[in-house]
Amino acid sequence: MKLTAERDGPIIRRHALTTRLTHWLWVICLFFLLLSGLQIFMARPDLYIGQQSGFAFDNSILSIGAGYQNGELVGVTRLFGSSFDTTGWLGAIGNAGTLQPQTFPSWLTVPSYRDLATGRVVHFFFAWVLVGTLLLWLVGSLINRHLSRDILPRGRDVAALPSDVADHARLRLHHRRTYGPLQKLSYFGVLFVALPLMIATGLTMSPGMNAWAPWTLDLFGGRQTARTIHFTVMLLLVLFVAVHIAMVLLAGPFNELRSMVTGRMRVDREEDAA
């Protein structure tokens, strides 16, 4: 199957320095935010909807824990009232050949051992770096027109979306001078919906923020609901990153990585004629 169009077109300047710099800063931030966030989550591996949580409330939608079945330790994950055996993956993790009650494997958290305080320090540090990077990207993209040219979807992008989705489904990946419709909508969703929502829900979980702006609790339906939204958006970002990496590999990793390192990229031959 042909993955891309002919690639012997010209090499063009695709990404400005600001775009490349913020891209790699986001990679670092999201990596440490994910692993430190899971460290924090282990302190209370449950998700709720509403203002409150605890044994007196029946509002849990996710719970990761361990129990005993026939005298053996097993990992049990409950999701919307259904229970799943997740031994070895979640709840009960193998350590030196012995199962231990542990929410996540050690390699999936920062630090690798149980240390809530350090996890919070790492998480908050990279959270503010992420905020600063997002602001830097926004200012830079307004100046170099990356936002208006490549990110903001237009009517023609919406109209061309079905054919672009079909091309991706058939692995017909193009190298254009600007982003395609699916890229625009995906990046717009991440930059203007997912990341701001992560930041807002993260702030809503802060007691200091609640005291300064108590309306945030009403906006998200309570601290526990904000925490659930925060966790859900994290999963969506992980999915986005996984698909993004897959597309880079399928489209030609050398050309794609060069565009984010040097700013230069070889486009399809028909792009030269356009």
TrEMBL record:
The chain crosses the membrane at residues 21-42, 121-143, 185-209, 229-250. Residues 14-263 form the Cytochrome b561 bacterial/Ni-hydrogenase domain. One of its GO terms (cellular component) is plasma membrane. Its main location: membrane. It holds the Pfam family Ni_hydr_CYTB. It is found in: Cell membrane. One of its GO terms (biological process) is respiratory electron transport chain. It comes from the Bacteria. Keywords: Cell membrane, Membrane, Transmembrane, Transmembrane helix. One of its GO terms (molecular function) is electron transfer activity. It is a multi-pass membrane protein. PANTHER family: CYTOCHROME YDHU-RELATED (PTHR30485:SF1), NI/FE-HYDROGENASE 1 B-TYPE CYTOCHROME SUBUNIT (PTHR30485). This is HupC. It comes from Aureimonas ureilytica.
